[in-house]
Fold this sequence. Notes:
Layout: H1 2-16, E1 23-24, E2 35-38, E3 44-48, E4 52-57, E5 62-66, E6 69-81, E7 88-89, H2 90-93, E8 94-99, E9 104-110, E10 113-120, E11 127-136, E12 140-152, E13 162-166, E14 171-175, E15 181-186, E16 190-192, E17 206-212, E18 221-231, H3 234-246, H4 248-265, E19 268-270, H5 274-288, E20 291-294, E21 298-301, E22 304-305, E23 319-320, H6 321-333, H7 337-348, E24 360-361, H8 370-373, H9 383-398, H10 401-419, H11 431-434, E25 449-450, H12 451-470, H13 474-495, E26 496-497, E27 502-503, E28 506-507, E29 513-514, H14 522-526, H15 532-542, E30 548-549, E31 552-553, H16 575-587, H17 591-602, E32 631-632, H18 633-647, E33 650-653, E34 658-661, E35 671-679, E36 682-691, E37 694-702, E38 708-711, E39 715-716, E40 721-726, E41 729-730, E42 734-737, E43 741-749, E44 754-761, E45 766-767, E46 784-790, E47 794-802, E48 806-812, E49 817-821, E50 824-826, E51 829-833, E52 842-851
Parallel strand pairs: 34-38
Antiparallel strand pairs: 1-18, 2-8, 3-4, 4-5, 5-6, 6-7, 6-12, 8-9, 9-10, 10-11, 11-18, 12-17, 13-14, 14-15, 15-18, 16-17, 19-35, 20-21, 22-32, 23-24, 25-28, 26-27, 28-29, 30-31, 33-34, 35-36, 36-37, 37-44, 38-43, 39-43, 40-41, 40-44, 42-43, 45-48, 46-47, 47-52, 48-51, 49-52, 50-51
Helix pairs in contact: 5-18, 6-7, 6-9, 6-18, 7-9, 9-10, 9-12, 10-12, 12-13, 16-17, 16-18, 17-18
Amino acid sequence: MKAILLMGLIIFTGLARGDSGTIPAFRLESSDIALHRLAQPGTPFDKVGRRFAILGDESGSFEAWAYPLKLFRNARLTFFVGNSTRGIPASQIVRYIDVSPAVTTLTFTYQSFTVKAHYIVPIKEPGGLVLLEVDASVPLKIVVGFVPVLQPMWPAGLGGQYAYWNQQLRAYVISESSGNNHALFGSPAGTGISYTPAHMLSDYPNEFVIDIPDPDPVRGKYIPIIMAGGRGERDSITAVYQRLARNVEAYYQQARAHYRHLRQQTMKVQTPVSEINLAFEWAKIAYDNLVVDNPDLGTGLVAGLGASGSSGRPGFGWFFGGDAYINALSLNSLNAYSTVRDALAFTRKWQREDGKMAHELTQAAAYVDWWKDYHYGYIHGDTTPYYIVAMWDYVRMSGDVAFLRQSWESIVRAYRWCLQTDANKDGLMDNRKAGLGATEYGAFTGVETDIYLGAIWVQATRAMAALARIMEDQQWARTASADFQRARKAFDRKFWDPSHQMYSFAFNARGERVTEVTPWCAVGLMWELGQPERSLQSLEKIATAELTTDWGVRSLSIHSKFYQPLNYNYGAVWPFLTSWVTTAQFKHHQLLQGFATLMSTVRHTFDHQLGAITEVFSGSLNVWPQEAVAHQGFSTAGVVLPFVRGLLGLEGDAIQHRVQFMPHFPPDWREVHIRDYRVGESRWNFHYFRRDDRIELQVTVENGVGYRLDFAPALAYDAPIEQVRVNGQSVAYQEQISAYLKHPEMSLPIQGEQLTVVIQFQPSLEFLPVTYPSRTGEANRGLKVVSLRYRDQGYDLLVEGLAGERYGLPLQNAQRIKKVRGARLQNDQLQIEFPEGAPGEFKRLQVRIELQAAP
């Protein structure tokens, strides 16, 4: 009966309306990084600007936010063909999703029509657009239903909401009794059909209908659906709605130009692996979508985004200080310096009087007394030292000394606060006094100092000393330098666990170590704070199947009594933890391990929300928990940081006028091109070429005179280097030796705009990285290279694999092999077969590879 009454209303309003409410269709440009697949209802997507977010899933359902207000939820399309009273939900006929930076398109296909919904969000307006492109052979009615909300983010709240159709605007007006918060949602082609009294928000959706009695006139046109909202006068929100309606194509072109400019102004990389190239470009977009211009608080970085459903926060769509500082290192790596500066300046505003930096801030802070009435703001201890680390990273790479001067008093206060948290005077910050660190709940929270907080503090002392030297503050430079020496010694002494041969997770008040096997030590190893051999042993432990999966690194060993695969702190796979592990692996020249873990995160760009990486995954299967946020900033760090600072080996110092390029490229990579790497005012292009016995690097640089380039590519451990020439002239170099690689290292003064380096060497045996693409829902199955070390004219290889399985490890220059024990050489591969065992059990094998004498 309800459906018949509804259709009667639809038919009547369709006959009564004369104007079409369409706009001429314009070309939606195909992006070179566009992502396409069959749509997966229930899988998230978003379209986001600085002030507005459409958060939905691939069924076509979505909610809308005009920060910090949630305008409505459960917006859905339903199609009625001809005079049918039976609606066809869009979720049942969605076929494709196409994602580009400026527009996401869902295609809905039925036997008599195809409708494309193009989702576009302007960069700077508190509003969004959905453009319907209709190709039908029969009359069609499209009903848009939604549930009005008009609530600020948790913990704020409003009452007295109401909604009604405004025929003049062709939109629902959603407001509340104070008259300070408003939203509009409608279409110039729409007519309202909800008959609930305005002041009685129903459990049933409000609806408007777009009636297409003759499909021919709408071909080649778009039917716009428009939404806008915010805090303030209703007239100002109405003006936004009307601007959007009048300037649809202009807003699309502005969004397109914005993302094109973003990609042009950040570093560009072309490797032989298209997945890496694509994931890196989408990382730029994913990060940019987390920049929020909150009308009450200012411009900063939120931690993540996801649909809130019936709750009050869009994923991690608040301002989290620690997340901003973690992400700053990746944003600096891809040269998004203005974003980092804004984020740092924003967090500085909320620094407590005693110097502690804020952990989290709701976007609705203007509606509540956040700092007084809620205890979450300053609960973390790691945020404050990470602020100092992020500040140094930004100043060092950007050369923005003016910003350092503006921030110096804040930095000093933060450092003083950190110092006073060392209650036991061991040189490290104490969790008990500072606040939470690696874990937020459970058995591991009652520690004296965890290695995550310890590592960040050691790095913060190093950062403070460097910043003080830039400021020519000799007192703080001396103090922080002494603090660094003391803290680094304490780090090594107090965290090294000889029984497990790795750096431990934490120690308690009695100095007893928490011996649970975790990857948290990788934070310090990424900054090379540990002793080299101990660091290598720790990373080899992490590389085992005990912690490493085909989709990332677990937060806790599967052998721990506390292990739970879906527990956030005690067993799940975090891409941001994997980020630190991967970076540490490359920093310690573990190319095989680092490349495998990097690829495990890269592939997450394409397996859930297209173009973004999910917050957390199960420790037992390659799948995300239902509550995981699909667009998480620190997960994007799992691509950017290890790729740029690890695989590419790029680091810049605008203060010291140095650029380091220490690539860990797989031996079969023939070409890599890096363009527009910016350090300070300098801009660098690197063109890397490798042949069997030769590496050539072509460098062009703008504003680089006075810099030094430290170049050190990876070669086989025993590959004799015959000659190094720069611009045709022989130059001196040093050999940096690691477990299984050799880096000919040279420091080259930049005296012009071009430089060519040629390294001649004799080919030797090299190992190629192997990765195992893991499909959603699969268990851990890939070969794990635990350890590879050169010894006595050969290599000792320690690997793990599934019981009863056979794996191939590809080689280059396998003719150099004299003898293999523990595996079989077949063509250019090591064939490794593991003994039988329980299903899913990983076995360990030791392989010895002896080499022929060098010619």
